[in-house]
Amino acid sequence: MTRSKKATPGLWYEDACGAAHGLELVGERWSLLVVRELLLGPRRFGQLREALPGVSANVLTQRLDGLEQSGIVVRRELPMPGNAHVYELTPWGYEAEPILQTLGRWAARSPAHDPSLPLSAVSLLLSFRTMFDPKHAQGLECEATLQLGPEPFVLHVSEQGIEIERGSSKAMDFTLSAEPAALASVVYGGRALVEAESAGDLQITGDRTLAKRFVKLFRLPPKASSR
């Protein structure tokens, strides 16, 4: 039985390998990054465009349509008074996070990887789950609000890892406010926390000791040898 090429968007490799079919599902430009932006919950079309400034409205529409057709994304209407459409991952779609984590760890070893480039709030938060080093979190148990630009997120941090929710809470051990790139420069770029504060790029309220420990919980993997 010949399969229809309309059943799944993207390039067709005519290869039974699961990896080949995975590329057929999310291998087109922007598709996997759209999935990334939805891993922390539903987003409206405009929010996706804001998080992915390099994608045009037309291409984003095509990618969302393709992901929906593939069963990775669903589109639904919010109840009143929201009266807006959002896109969210299906349960199967959410299973893509370990793929993104493995790819991220592998690609971060590239000598060409530049952690100083712009990144979205979701991208930074998912990198925290990916690069979390449990050796540096022994005995740690805290909750924090990260205000990344206009978006607040609640983080539950322990030796077991990091849980992330959209929103904010007053019952936090500390709140850290910064643009994603500014926080990334401290966590991954070697920038001193006090220097970022002095420059007005980052603000801490609450338990400063915990906040200082938090930014040291993440480690980029070593660069790959060219030999």
Q: Write down the secondary-structure element order.
A: HHHHEEHHHEEEEHHEH
Low-confidence stretches: 1-7
Total beta strand runs: 7
Spatial strand sequence of the major β-sheet: 5-4-3-6-7
Overall radius of gyration:
19 Å
Q: Into how many domains do the coordinates divide?
A: 2
CATH topology of the largest domain: Nonspecific Lipid-transfer Protein, Chain A
The H-level CATH homologous superfamily of the largest domain, spelled out, is SCP2 sterol-binding domain
Give the second-level CATH assignment, the architecture of the largest domain. 2-Layer Sandwich
What is the CATH first-level class name of the largest domain?
Answer: Alpha Beta
Oligomer: single chain
Report the β-strand fraction as a percent range.
15-25%
Helix and strand composition category? alpha+beta
The gross shape turns out to be globular
What share of the residues lie within helices?
25-40%
Separate helix tally: 10
Mean pLDDT: 91
Note the gap between the termini.
46 Å
Biggest β-sheet strands, sense, barrel: 5 strands, mixed
Explain what this protein looks like in three dimensions.
The protein is α+β, with helices and mostly antiparallel strands and 227 residues long. 37% of the residues lie in helices and 19% in strands. It has 2 domains: 78 residues, Winged helix-like DNA-binding domain superfamily/Winged helix DNA-binding domain (Arc Repressor Mutant, subunit A), CATH 1.10.10.10; 102 residues, Nonspecific Lipid-transfer Protein, Chain A. It has 10 helices and 7 strands. Strand 4 and strand 5 form a beta hairpin.
